[in-house]
Predict the structure.
Amino acid sequence: MHDLAVYAAHPEQSRGRQHQEAPPQGRNEFQRDRDRIIHSTAFRRLEYKTQVFVNHEGDLFRTRLTHSLEVAQIGRGIARNLGLHEDLVEAIALAHDLGHTPFGHAGQDELNACMKEHGGFEHNLQSLRVVDLLEQRYAEFDGLNLTFETREGILKHCSPQNARQLGIVGERFLDKGQPSLEAQVANLADEIAYNNHDVDDGLRSGIITLEQLAQVAIFARHLDEVKGLYPELGSRRLVHETVRRMINSLVRDISRQSADNIAAAAPGAIAAVRSTQLPLIGFSPSMQQEQLQLKQFLRTNLYRHYLVNRMSSKAQRIIRELFAAFMQDPNLMPEDFQQLAKADKPRTVADYIAGMTDRYAIREYRRLFTVEEQPL
Ligand code: MG
């Protein structure tokens, strides 16, 4: 481990866990968090949850698992450049999507709509719910009992209404404070990861083309560089060489700009980081503009493409009809969920659906709604 800066999160000064535990032997508190996340059931399910493309549509596309690994890799690189705690960034990155529903954003939006009268559904809050409550592995507590710092990083957004229910981890949404720099790094590493791998997956799927992407400044700049160096390069390698340069330039830009921001604010400790008005981790203004252009391009040309819309529409129907069926008869759910539903039916149904992988949700849908012969 490199030298930790004064403004980094120091594990021995952690604000602690909800349930007191003896300090770990031979590893620090944030490593223990990371290790618990990797061993969780929710983490393994990420392999079969969609990012943009539904899991069974191709083995080469990103899933939430590979996405989370990429976020951790990018985040650790930035953390090392800035003297931040790499293990904490990694723990946050690996946990940040644990609460995602099947079928990506389409699934989350539909579940939120289903839960409108019952407190709504936010995937960030659900990630926290998974690590605080839903994982059942330890004798002495529900959830994974993670440190405050990891939980703070997982809860990227939160409505004031929900923040009031959450104790210390909700406070910054009410007091307008910032999270640790490690949390800020994980957040932007997420953005770098999905913009770049969505370009790659989008091209691989044929939904977007190189010609279209040549209109996007950040892509065009790096594409021209690669073409200049290797005029004869085949298209797969051309894309890869371009994307790796984009990721590298984003990581370098964020490291440089954030180092300047930190130097100007000169926080003497993590408490000073938490009380700054604006995040200190960020892109330079010109890179911010380019990132925005790329995001808009992806929104228009990939996320709203009719082939993606078709998948989303199917996904929404599955979520909506599963929700209605379980609400009407909770006894269609497995035994342990039936028990939990007695205390809070809508939230239990939402937890059950949110935990499903893409293929499990599809299977459940068939089991419930198809009259032809189905395996149990
Ligand atoms: Mg993510």
Observations:
- Residues 67, 96-97, 190, 194 surround magnesium ion (CB under 6 Å).
- The chain has a mean pLDDT of 94.
- The radius of gyration is 22 Å.
- The domain at 28-309 is CATH 1.10.3210.10 (Hypothetical protein af1432).
